[in-house]
Protein: ABC transporter ATP-binding protein
Organism: Planobispora takensis
Amino acid sequence: MDTTVEVRALAKRYGRTTVLDRVDLDLGPGVTGLLGPNGAGKTTLLRCLATTLAPDDGGIRALGLDPARREQRTALRRRLGYLPQDPGFYPHFTVFELADYVAILKELTDRAERHREVRRVLAEVDLADRARTRVRKLSGGMKQRLALAQALLADPDLLILDEPTVGLDPEQRMRFRALVSRLGESRTVLLSTHQTEDVAALCERVVVMNGGRVVFEGTPGELAGVAAGQVWISDAPPSGSALFWRTADGRYRTLGENPPGGTPAVPAIEDGYLLLLGAPAEAAA
Ligand SMILES: Nc1ncnc2c1ncn2[C@@H]1O[C@H](COP(=O)(O)OP(=O)(O)OP(=O)(O)O)[C@@H](O)[C@H]1O
């Protein structure tokens, strides 16, 4: 893998809480998914990579640049696109004005060229016909698409997307996957999500964080493989307190020990993820 982003012993604390606990991570071109429970440190890591938050310790090298150094940080900002978790857009701006405003901040100085670029990114996220709509009148999913559009301005080499599919309807989710997988052919994309389906559909690599640490790095298939031999289908619910649920066909899917009469099932990414985080042990507690 050509490494485009190197994270070394990255640490961030808030008071006594360690939010990033010496995180090491290498990324290359392609789409990498970042999974982890609430509070795992995903947003904090993404903010450090997007240069909106300075770590307490450790280092980052992204696109050959060191964001701890002022000039290199500026150079990196010119080449990265960031969709934050909570963009907080100005509600009175129109969609076009908002994207144009971000384009100005991204130093697209030629007005005609900039407007062409704004129209391009709005078309990418299917918002071209909403260009004159005020941000406050957009639905949640449309706001999310506008947030993605502004991240795509100036064709960044590094795209950092914090929960980009939140609020998207199924059609827009498909469009998003097509767009991001195309971008990932030549760029480095890191996206955090709680949707294991997005990871399965889109990501070549997956990173799982828990408690401020990276606890897994590999392919989606390898993450599913964590649950190999530990996923079962049975007609009756398991006794004890394994993690299980009733499926649409009225049978039971159990994660962990084989329930009586259980037959093995093909593990999904979610199964591997839950086992990695110790979910059956928690269910038993
Ligand atoms: N500015 C802050 N001050 C104090 N604590 C913070 C601050 N920002 C984040 N934290 C804490 O850091 C921890 C990690 O937060 P972070 O937002 O990085 O998690 P996350 O993995 O993105 O979670 P989620 O899936 O809920 O978005 C949480 O315990 C959070 O409360």
User: Anything to note?
Assistant: Residues 14, 19, 36, 38-44 surround adenosine-5'-triphosphate (CB under 6 Å).
